[in-house]
Amino acid sequence: MLKKVVFKLAIPNHPIVIEFPSTEVIKTVADTIAAKGFNQVSFKSIDGVKISTTTKVSEILHEPYFIEVDGHSFKISPELHADSAENYNEFFHNLNLSLEDRHLLQNYVHSVSSYLNLASKETDKSSVAAALNKFLPVGRAKTENPLEIQKNLNEYHNELIKLLELDERIDKKAARFTNGVFWMGFGILSMQFAYIGAGTYVFYSWDIMEPQAYLITLANFITGVSIYAVKRQEFSMESMYDVIKNKRKNYLAKSYGLDRERLEFLKEEVNRLKKKLISD
After folding, report:
1. First to last CA, the chain
2. Using 50, 70 and 90 to split pLDDT, how confident is the model at 25?
3. DSSP letter string, the chain
């Protein structure tokens, strides 16, 4: 019996739960999601690089990745595939909640679950309590009063600006680093070209340089295949650029103490409070 994999996406007003055999490829999953009325569906690695559509579902089950649907990004962790679609529906859809509250609860449960399962430590009472507090949305119960809404909005907006400025600096530093890596790669390729050219026309002859040229080309090809085998991503200059840049950004974010979860929370909260002010 083929193992089935459950994909659960808590899209606002349109949650999706679909199930596929693990032998299916990513393209089939993406096409099925798109058939439900969505235009942009893509799978990306934890580094933000697009996963090849020919990759089998079974090959992405053992590490986190992202599914992007019409601007919404969902982090999928290995343990989220373990639950059945029936249990998922029964738990969330039988609750007497509005769609907005249900979406909030789903994200909260998934965040706590991912945090506990991905942490390399035993899950005890204190770690569960820490996870519950870590991902608990704050400040929502005090936003009924317009003055309180404006106050919270100002505080969140000021904090968001600082984090966005830091994120922008990190992005620029990561881009400069990645450009440097690519220029270094260009230098290596130029040296290979110069070596083969000089060896052929100046120092030796094509009879001597021909096998070396083949070996150099083969080495470059093996490097590309190895990257694909490890990353399960299409090998292209664009994908390599994204991999290197995102890895550098993650490193710099830790070095500078940028909390990306806090950044995303502030973005959502500022937008929500702005809409709340307009509606009131």
Report:
1. 55
2. confident
3. ---EEEEEE--TT--EEEEEETTSBHHHHHHHHHTTT-S-EEEEETTSPBBPTTSBGGGGTTS-EEEEETTEEEEE-GGGGSS-HHHHHHHHHTS---HHHHHHHHHHHHHHHHHHHHSSS---HHHHHHHHHHS---SSTT-SSHHHHHHHHHHHHHHHHHHHHHHHHHHHHHHHHHHHHHHHHHHHHHHHHHHHHHIIIIIS-HHHHHHHHHHHHHHHHHHHHHHHHHH-B---HHHHHHHHHHHHHHHHHHHHT--HHHHHHHHHHHHHHHHHHHH-
b/e 70-79 (16+ beta carbons within 10 angstroms → b): eeeebebbee
In the chain, what percentage of residues exceed pLDDT 90? 23
Q: Are strands 16-21 and 41-45 parallel, antiparallel or unpaired?
A: unpaired
Structure tokens at 42: 């893509």
Kindly list the domain boundaries of the chain, sorted by start residue. Answer: 4-134, 146-279
pTM score > 0.70 for this model? no
Q: Is the dihedral of CA 39, 99, 160, 244 positive or negative?
A: negative
Q: Tell me how crowded residue 113 is: count the other CB atoms within 10 A of its CB.
A: 17
| Cα 65 from chain centre | 6
- Which of 31-45, 107-121, 153-167 has the least mean pLDDT? 107-121
| Measured distance CA(274)–CA(270) in Å, rounded | 6
Q: Which of 137, 169, 162, 178 is nearest to 47 (CA)?
A: 178
CA dist 268 and 104 (Å) reads 11
